[in-house]
Amino acid sequence: MRRASVGLTFIGMLLLPPAAAAQTGADVAGVPRTPWGAPDLMGYWTYDTTTPLQRPAELAGKEVLTPAEAAAFLDERYVSIGRERALQLNADWWVPGDLTGGRTALIIDPQDGRIPPRTAAGRARLAALAPALRSRSADGPEDRERYERCIMGRSIPMEARPAPRLFQVFQTPDHVVLLNEQNFEIRIVPLTGAPPLPASIRQWRGEGRGRWEGDTLVIETTNFNGKWTLHGAGPELRLVERLSFADPDTLQYEFTVHDPASFIRPWTVQFPIGRAAGPLYEFACHEGNYSLPLILSGARAEEAAAAKGAP
Question: Which of 142, 154, 133 shows the shortest CA–CA distance to 85?
Fold first, then answer.
């Protein structure tokens, strides 16, 4: 892999006309700040957890586990994760993590730690766009999941999973840039108060607009194209992300899903992000990787065998 080359992108950002530098809101003790007064998010960050997104049914009503309960839960969870990664031929490519604060779910709202009930449209979208990889069709590349096709990673929103994710942040007075290592995905978020794109313009990663609320960076993303789904969400999804310092070396990350066409109410996920060492390396994911032609040719081989009546 080659070292990431993002210098030109960042230099281009620095040449943009600066916006007003003042930031409103009370200062938070120990928060590093840029020369223009905003919280300084720049640098390398990493996040991972073994806490599931949703609270398992058997842990209903239990938000936090004792150390003994957590150890027993993690034994079973490691086996489950390892089995899944083995099926993906990635059995050796994950780092067993811990529970985030002993929590049993990353969802903090609703309080039951579960994704709210979906509407009929949300259920239909989940069935159509989010089947398990092994149950997907393979008639052509379009049948495969966006991540598998290297179209985009899982950085909108950022999703904490057992394999650590690394990303880097750049800032100017009027832009924030987030570069995720996985799929080498760059998000350039203006802080200038620019209006959102017209509803007719839809993109895989949507279009983000940022602002500071005190010392919290808020990013609202809309205008998704609806060709993928976040647990049943559709193209009218409004994703609100919040990043703020918990301490000088830890960010609190939170995202809220607003999509009344798909869920009966909004829901919120929260987890910490820690400082990390760089550098960031090029992920170099592309649709010409061996996996995709092998998936398609394997499907054709299975069809040919079935047609011949082979076992």
Answer: 133
Decide: 231 and 262 in contact? Cβ < 8 Å.
no
Look up residue 283 and give its amino acid: F
Please give the angle made by the CA atoms of 48, 202 and 145, to the nearest 5 degrees.
Answer: 45
Rounded Cα–Cα distance for residues 246 and 253 (Å): 10
Per-residue pLDDT of 231-287, as tens digits, reads: 999 999 999 999 999 999 999 999 999 999 999 999 999 999 999 998 988 877 765
Longest dimension (CA), the chain: 73
How is residue 192 written in tokens? 């200038």
User: pLDDT tens-digit profile of 28-64?
Assistant: 578 999 999 999 999 999 998 989 999 999 999 999 9
Cβ within 8 Å of residue 256, ≥6 positions away: 109, 239, 240, 266, 267, 268, 269
* 189 C-beta neighbours (distance < 10 Å), count: 18
- How far apart, in whole angstroms, are the C-alpha atoms of residue 148 and residue 150? 6
What region, left, alpha or beta, does residue 299 occupy, with left being phi > 0 and alpha being psi -120 to 50 degrees? Answer: alpha
CA distances from 229 to 50, 94, 108, 119, 145 (A): 22, 24, 21, 14, 10
Structure tokens at 124: 């239909």
Contact 99, 51 (CB under 8 A): yes
